[in-house]
Write a structure and sequence with these properties.
By secondary structure, the protein is an alpha/beta fold. Helices cover 41% and strands 14% of the residues. The chain is built from 18 helices and 13 strands. The strands form two sheets. A seven-stranded parallel beta sheet has the order 3-4-2-5-6-1-7, sandwiched between helices. Helix 15 links the parallel strand 12 and strand 13. The radius of gyration is 24 Å and the shape is elongated. The termini are far apart. The structure holds adenosine monophosphate. Adenosine monophosphate binds next to helix 3.
Length: 437
């Protein structure tokens, strides 16, 4: 279905053509008509599905048509007053806020609307100046918004459309109270669009209290996208992972790679190793300042660095067009995270490659991933650091024994002395590893 069939106005269609969008994504196809009818929306969708355009396009259209009608009725705004804010988008992170702002700029390039992005961690001066000049659409993170509301630089009394983006992540990040404080200040009579990748009971309850007869739209992790991604599995020992990564990244056909680690320290370690090997990279994670994160992301987007190393929390929401490779340096504990990670590549019809490293301890995670995606990731054996798929996991202290008697390992790790300290996962791993040839 082309965008025209969604009754989108010409200036936006022109902008979408400029962006190279040929047809709406499933969430856009479902959500745009609902929003244009001024209905409330409950959207179960994550970044990567095109959800930003699913709300940004109809918001621009509704505000443009309201303005046209106002002008028609002769209700011109006075020149001395700033424009009242008519749409508010609350999103949990600065990265997401910036990306949403870029979307409004892109889709609204031929419309005469002003948008502003505000977030914390930077001086408020230019944000306050822009607010004084007047904006139609405000994109904000909750903390800075409340701060500026308390200082009376933001007036939300004229909000017509409110978007709560990534509600589940707001909860994870401890922003729900702030969100509720903001909601208390916007008009009860409004249109609300609520997006969340998951719907835990507390989020469902929040949705219930702030939405009015919403239409529910659900888009599961885009399996079609996942199918378009070339997935590769590298069995490698933990010690050889740094060398394998360097070896792979020496291939210059890898234009841009997002490397995932489980921990912040892991991300820093990987970047240091890459730097030593002369491969420019940057890490983004929660311990980095907002500015450092944004710089790293900008350098990556503008292709000044090829490799970005990130933890899952930091990477969630990162939107980089035409990302060619995702590398799972460490497999995630939660299999769904694998799907989210690799969904960063292969966006919007482009092909992508997802390479996953699996060491002996990660086989339980791999098994869970295979179960979730319903297939086995093809194994790459032609690389300089192969580890046999059957290599049993032996705790470090037992390394000597492993070489002296391989048969003694049919139950080598039943003591649970895993490097990760045992835990629920270890059982799964044991079972998987227990199969002997
Ligand atoms: P989002 O889920 O909003 O983060 O969007 C994911 C990516 O898809 C962004 O890079 C968008 O620019 C891109 N995108 C959104 N809608 C479309 C579309 N209809 N056609 C092609 N690309 C799109």
């Amino acid at each position: 279905m082309p965008f025209q069939q969604l009754n989108i106005i010409e200036p936006i269609l022109k902008a979408l053509k400029h962006e190279g969008y040929s047809k709406p994504t499933p969430i856009q196809e479902q959500a745009i008509p609902i929003v244009l009818k001024r209905r409330d929306l409950l959207g179960c969708a994550q970044t990567g599905t095109g959800k930003t355009a699913a709300f940004a396009i109809p918001i621009i259209q509704l505000l443009v048509s309201d303005e046209v009608q106002q002008n028609f009725r002769g209700e011109h705004r006075g020149h001395t007053h700033p424009k009242p804010i008519h749409a508010l988008i609350l999103t949990p992170t600065r990265e997401l806020a910036v990306q949403i702002g870029e979307s409004f700029a892109a889709y609204g390039r031929h419309c005469n609307l002003k948008h502003l992005v505000i977030f914390g961690g930077v001086s408020q001066h230019s944000q306050v100046e822009a607010l004084k000049r007047g904006v139609d659409i405000l994109v904000a993170t909750p903390g800075r918004l409340l701060d500026l509301m308390n200082q009376r630089f933001v007036n939300l009394s004229q909000i017509k459309i409110f978007v709560l983006d990534e509600a589940d992540r707001m909860l994870d990040m401890g922003f729900i109270n702030d969100v509720q404080k903001v909601i208390a200040k916007i008009p009860a009579k409004r249109q609300t669009l609520f997006f969340s990748a998951t719907m835990p009971p507390i989020i469902a309850k929040l949705a219930d209290t702030i939405l009015h007869e919403p239409v529910r739209v659900e888009v599961t992790p885009p399996s079609s996208t996942v199918d378009a991604i070339k997935q590769q599995l590298y069995y490698v020992t933990k010690n050889d992972k740094p060398s394998l990564l360097i070896h792979l990244l020496k291939d210059t056909s890898i234009q841009s790679a997002l490397v995932f680690t489980r921990t912040k320290h892991g991300a820093d370690r990987v970047t240091r190793n890459l730097e030593k090997a002369g491969i420019k990279s940057a890490a983004i994670h929660g311990n980095k300042s907002q500015n450092a994160r944004q710089n790293a992301l900008n350098n990556f987007k503008t292709k000044q660095i090829r490799v970005l190393v990130a933890t899952d929390i930091a990477a969630r929401g990162i939107d980089v067009d035409s990302l060619s490779h995702v590398i799972n340096y460490e497999l995630p504990n939660v299999p769904e995270t694998y799907v989210h990670r690799i969904g960063r590549t292969g966006r919007a019809g482009l092909t992508g490659v997802a390479m996953s490293f699996c060491d002996a301890e990660e086989r339980g995670e791999l098994k869970d991933i295979h179960k979730l995606i319903g297939k086995q990731i093809p194994v790459v054996t032609e690389h300089p650091y192969p580890m046999s798929a059957d290599t049993p996991f032996v705790p470090a202290v037992d390394n000597r024994k492993r070489h002296s008697n391989s048969n003694s390992h049919s139950k080598p790790h039943s003591g649970g002395s895993s490097h990760k300290g045992g835990g629920g996962n270890a059982g799964g791993k044991k079972k998987f590893w227990g199969k002997k040839g």
